[in-house]
Amino acid sequence: MMFRPLVVRHILLSFIFIVFFSSCSHVMKKDEVKNEFINDFYALQAVPASFLNTSVLESLVFKNAQTQKLLTQIEFNDKGLHMVAMTYSGLPIIQAKWQYNVGFIELISQRFPHAVVMRMIRDIQWVKWPIHSIRKGLLDKYSLVEFSENNYKIRQIKYNNTVLVKITYRSDHIVLENTAEKYALVIEQLNDK
Hints:
Helices cover 22% and strands 45% of the residues. By secondary structure, it is of the alpha+beta class.
């Protein structure tokens, strides 16, 4: 039986990609991580009913000492969420499956450790989940307020009246400013929920 050169090249490229991605990745097993508090004041919450069986495609710009841009796709279901992220050039860098009350059941990441991916999921919840869900995850001395300012919806997470996180919902993007951890995140939704 004779193989065409194009088929052989496709098989070889697929094999090289799988080997490269596997060797450069950090893979977590199901029993390595349980659902946990993030920074000791927020416990991740279940996916709200309004998000079940939906997905979002978003552009994320993460700003701290340097700027990183990612494209993410997140699918929500009754157990949790499945997130994939890639660079703007198309290099896959995160594949994560997270379930409420279990934690990660899969985490493959070339660049980001467990704690960073957990923070990404926490930020997704702070931005998207309804207020009552977020409040259930906050410890007693922390509060969440939501109000309008200059025609924008604003959410703030506070500790003893000190704003730790401010989320501004603009018409074309969302800005999350985390002063406690010294970073900002700009989220632009590329599809409708």
